[in-house]
Amino acid sequence: MDALYTAVATANGREGRAVSSDGLLDLPLAHPPVLGGDGRGTNPEQLFAAGYAACFASAMGVIARQERIDVSEVSVTAEVSLGKDAADGGFGLAVVMRAEFPDHLQGEAGRALLEKTHAFCPYSKATRGNIAVELVVE
């Protein structure tokens, strides 16, 4: 692959900081309270959810333009869950990708757009076969 852009970020664990090479991203990291942390920072799951939702919404825009579909009122929410991986006793991720569609994209039209977006989105391609992703039309 010929890279069009390369993002670079450095982190020093779940209790520390995440910083991008250009300094635009500079965030404290912390375990969420439900996992025993103080919650005074973001966490990798939140960062992944934000990135995946943004990428998915952008990919949907590309597909929608090709098909002349108005997605100006669509919002995309990624729910990233961290849980135990029964296969090795470690941890794993699962994603629920929710697309809130206006009336003209309810039913099969919205489902078709969601499926095409999932096939096209770079994050979806990267996670395919590795992370369970459930697609939900709202």
Automatic annotation (TrEMBL):
GO biological process: response to oxidative stress
Top-level taxon of origin: Bacteria
InterPro entries membership: KH_dom-like_a/b, OHR, OsmC/Ohr_fam, OsmC/Ohrsf
A Pfam cross-reference name: OsmC
Family: Belongs to the OsmC/Ohr family.
Protein name in the entry: Organic hydroperoxide resistance protein
Origin species: Streptomyces termitum
